[in-house]
Design goal:
Rossmann fold; 2 domains
């Protein structure tokens, strides 16, 4: 069996490649558009293809060559502030790439199982009385990134309904872990702490809004959910992926500060505040548990420890 991961060089994509190597006997191929640094340690075990999902001819050529049995479509712009700055660029990138991939599958008459990755941002601001969020909740995205993920989500559904493709959609809630970009909140805190411990910056942590509560899952649990969704999930269905627990950003920061080797001061930075913040995000993952048996297994403290240790190692490389 052959798996193809778009965005294999990204945060979740690299963890998914590791999971598949450790838990299947599949051949693993992946599309890289920019850096392959995240998969450098396994590049001799996988087949990397340079390409641009925005170019249909390239996409068709790559799929004609690989002819995958499984496609994990992870490639996308995933940082919400980027979508506020360049809404059309993010929307076009996220939607065009997936549309090209699905059209190529149809034209080539391939029959892979396909995983389309949406986001909890599709739900927007959900009232606390309507939490935890189930898959049948209304989609009310309140930022441009969320709109792009709704489009990806429904493109997946449309190609299942109109072309009979075996497509399973997922809506992961916040996830974090080693190798996540430092402009996301947990690695942003961890990098600042690691740099302060190493004497590379003053012992001050710059923060945005600490009051929102988020449902965080370890990325290694999330990619296991991706595997179970594509192998055991029902085609045409959509599944939430999350921990079922909400922590305030302040609580997560305090856990990280407890792990710090030095005393640090916390300062709010207005530049880190977002135009709209959902007060509470909480996932109901009972549907994926029922259909695939998936449950999160890695405690949040373990995740935070691993992220902080990752950045401590990265800081050593800089020094």
């Amino acid at each position: 069996m052959r798996a193809f991961i778009t965005g294999i060089g990204g945060f979740a994509g690299s963890h998914l490649a590791e999971f598949l190597l450790e838990n299947t006997d599949w051949e693993i191929a992946g599309l890289v558009h920019r850096s392959a640094e995240n998969v450098a340690h396994i590049q001799d075990k996988i087949h990397l293809v340079q390409g641009n999902l925005g170019n249909y001819q390239e996409v068709e050529g790559i799929l004609a060559q690989i002819r995958p049995d499984f496609i994990f479509h992870l490639a996308a712009s995933a940082f919400v502030p980027d979508a506020w700055k360049n809404p059309w660029e993010v929307f076009e990138n996220n939607v065009r790439g997936q549309l090209n991939m699905l059209q190529a599958v149809v034209k080539l008459k391939l029959e892979p199982r396909i995983l389309v990755v949406g986001s909890n941002e599709e739900y927007g601001a959900v009232k606390e009385e309507d939490l935890p969020v189930r898959e049948d909740a209304p989609l009310r995205p309140n930022n441009p990134y969320g709109v792009s993920k709704v489009a990806q989500d429904f493109l997946g559904l449309q190609f299942h309904l109109s072309h009979g493709l075996h497509i399973v959609r997922v809506r992961p809630f916040n996830h974090t872990g080693p190798r996540q970009r430092p402009d996301f909140v947990i690695p942003a805190f961890a990098r600042q702490l690691a740099e302060a411990e190493a004497g590379l910056r003053p012992p001050v942590i710059k923060v945005g809004n600490l009051f929102p509560k988020r449902d965080f899952t370890d990325v290694r649990d999330v990619v296991r959910a991706y595997y179970l969704a594509i192998t055991k999930g029902k085609p045409g269905e959509v599944y939430n992926i999350g921990s079922g627990k909400a922590y305030s950003i302040k609580e997560l920061l305090e856990m990280l500060l407890q792990m710090s080797r030095i005393e640090v001061r916390v300062e709010q930075d207005q530049a880190l505040m977002r135009p709209s913040d959902v007060p509470v995000s909480l996932c109901d993952y009972s549907k994926i548990r029922r259909d695939t048996g998936w449950e999160p297994s890695i405690p949040i403290r373990k995740t935070l420890e691993d992220v902080l240790d990752y950045w401590r190692e990265k800081v050593k490389e800089v020094k």
